[in-house]
Design a protein that fits this description.
single chain; Thiamine_Salvage_TenA; TenA_E; mainly alpha; aminopyrimidine aminohydrolase
């Protein structure tokens, strides 16, 4: 049965599904590539190379620091929307959890003896951060920004929730990492971001929807490159 308030038409298809659902179906291969990457599978099956994990840790700390201004710019965009202000509160909550995420990285880095001050950003990371920086422009429409925000968060949520699924052999040292993004609360938060994105996309022009889809695809590609970089393949 169709979920009330979630009706969205996609490109003349006769069934009505939310835009984000249509995107995932259309780009399933790439979506799975980002959320079921060999690096993630190796954490789940316990075969992970800890040197790759340490590389990911250092690079992701840099990424998260660049992610904050992008989220802040999305917060500004949401504050200009004529809604009930609830989007703004959700995004503000997201900013607060990014603060926790930064502190988590610092703690993990010290546990794994990774010196965050000496990490040199790698090419895939630089490109991803540049992409985010370009999206902070006030010219970028709110539906595009919120779709990107959701996509970035959901890749980690799905990836690490997959690690935690039954039958996993996650090394004890990485259990906390998987729980950080794979926990139920983070899942609910991503679901809320997705609902906000779908609501915005439902009201957006075809031109803006297609810009948002291109940006969504870029996120998936950058995420795959980021995992590849972590295992030394980029
Ligand atoms: C590359 C990447 N993508 C997503 C997330 C989740 N905030 C992250 N920390 N890093």
């Amino acid at each position: 049965m169709e979920d009330a308030g979630k009706k969205l038409v996609t490109e003349g298809v006769d069934c009505k599904i939310p835009v984000t659902e249509a995107w995932i179906r259309k780009h399933r291969l790439l979506y799975d590539g980002a959320t079921r990457h060999p690096f993630i599978r190796s954490i789940r099956d316990g075969s992970v190379d800890f040197s790759y994990f340490k590389r990911w840790l250092g690079q992701d700390y840099i990424f998260v620091r660049s992610f904050v201004p992008f989220v802040a710019s999305t917060l500004v965009k949401s504050s200009k929307e004529s809604g009930d202000g609830l989007d703004m509160e959700v995004i503000l909550g997201g900013m607060a959890s990014l603060n926790d995420e930064i502190n988590w990285f610092k703690n993990e880095a010290s546990k794994f003896h990774v010196s965050l001050t000496s990490v040199v950003p790698q090419k895939a990371n630089i490109k991803y951060c540049r992409f985010l920086e370009n999206l902070t422009s006030s010219e970028v429409e709110y539906p595009v920004a919120i779709s990107v925000f959701w996509a970035i968060e959901v890749v980690y949520q799905e990836s690490f929730a997959h690690c935690l699924e039954e039958g996993n052999l996650i090394p004890e040292e990485l259990q906390g990492t998987c729980e950080r993004w794979g926990n139920e609360g983070f899942g609910t938060y991503c679901k809320t971001l997705r609902e906000i994105a779908d609501r915005c996309l439902q009201k957006a022009s075809p031109e803006v929807i297609s810009k948002a889809e291109v940006a969504f695809l870029s996120v998936l590609e950058y995420e795959v490159d980021f995992w590849n970089m972590s295992i030394g393949e980029a």
